[in-house]
Structure formats: structure tokens, C-alpha cells
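**User:**
Make up any protein.

**Assistant:**
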Amino acid sequence: MAAPRVLRPRATQVLRALDTTVEIETPEHVLFSCSLAGPARRALAYLIDLFVRAAILIAIGIALSLASLAQPEISGWKLGALLLLMFALEWGYFVACESFMNGRSVGKRALGLRVVTQGGLPVSFGASVLRNLLRAADFLPTGYAVGLLTMTLDPRFRRLGDWAADTMVIIEERPRLREPIRLHPPPTAAELDQLPTRLDLPGPVLEALELFLRRAPELQTLREDELASMLATIYGQRLNLRYQNASRFLGLLYVRAVGGKPSVR
């Protein structure tokens, strides 16, 4: 199976530079867009991870100190154990998190970020190791100066580690509960009686109807009628029904298809 192809931004998208989104095409030629994580959000996620690592180090340091008080003979190992822990946290923390948390660390998860490949696929263990080994180069000369400069100049906000591992960091959309669609005024028994008792609409048609009904209040009347007529004409002829308002007719079709009941008068 061929790898997904990342589409290059079109010239018409220049004015949307601040939108920080990228379009990705899957092998099945399905397009989806991702929001890219910028330097500020990624820096905040790194600070959260820094506090997490410091908390782990402090907790284990306290435990070793208490253990050395109870058994003085192990006090000589305390410094070596702390140094080994610091090394493990510095080089293994992000790799372990991204491998076991599907491209996220504690900080990334808190801010809704995830590391993925340029094709939108989950990051592999090898890619995670490579991108995190190059943190040393991104840190130069201090304070991630090289990494921040690279992210600022790159249209997908990639640092050197992302360039080498062919990865990027995206913002995940948090799931939101949508309010159910309600017609105003509510459908009456007389309106619904004109429609078939059982109306099975294909999934894509239901999705198109729902999208239209959610956007209809934001559209101008002429534009709403124009869009509604495209689908209302087809189903009006198919069901041998007449209607006066195309938008209302589509709303009634949707209500009937999802099992809606008439309003009680």
C-alpha cells in the first residue's frame, strides 16, 4: 500500500497562513485536515513535561534519602542512582511516552497535541527515538534556540528532530457533544403523515442533511433556498411529493429518517 501523500499548500491558501492547517490525502484518496501545533503551544507542553520529570526525580530522591537514613551503607549509591535516573528521564521519557501513549507525552496530552508522521499515521518507535535523540541538536546553543528557529521558519513548525524522523505535531480536536437538530416550528403530524412511515436514507445523505440543517441558520435566505433545492428536488420526485419550502422539506425528511415524532399540540 502506498504511503499517504501530503498535499502542498495551494496559492489560494496564502491568505490562510494564520490558519496553520495542512491537508493530508490517504491511500484511499480521502482528504482530511489537521491543525498544526505552533512553537508556543509546544513549548508549554514541554514545560509541563519538565515539571513532571522534575517531580519524578524529586520523589525518587526523597525515597533514596529516607532509605539511606535507615541503611547508611547504601548512601554511597544515592548520587549514582540519581544521575542514572536523570539520564533515563532526559533520553527515555519522551520515547516511552510517545510509544505507549500513541504519540503523546503528559504535556502533549494536557494540551491536546500528538506526534504523527507527515502522512498523518501514528509515529513508530524508531521515528520517536530519532526525533528525540536530535533534541540535543535542537537545544543548541541554549534554550532550544535552534529548534525554535527551525520551527519558526518551517511552514509545518517542525524542528530538526521532526525533519529527520519525518514527523509533525498536530492539535487533536476534542470531541464535543452536539445539540440535536430541532426544526422551528416543530414538525406537525400532518406534515409527517405526508412522508413514508419508514424512510431509509443512505448515511452520506443523512450527513449532508445534518450539515445543511446546522448551517442553514447562518446562511442568507437565497443561498439557503439554492442549496436546499439541489437535494429537495431529487427526493421530491423520488417520493412523488410536493413542497413549498425546500429547506423545510429537507428538515422533515431528516426528522422522519432519524425517527422523529410530531410535536404535541
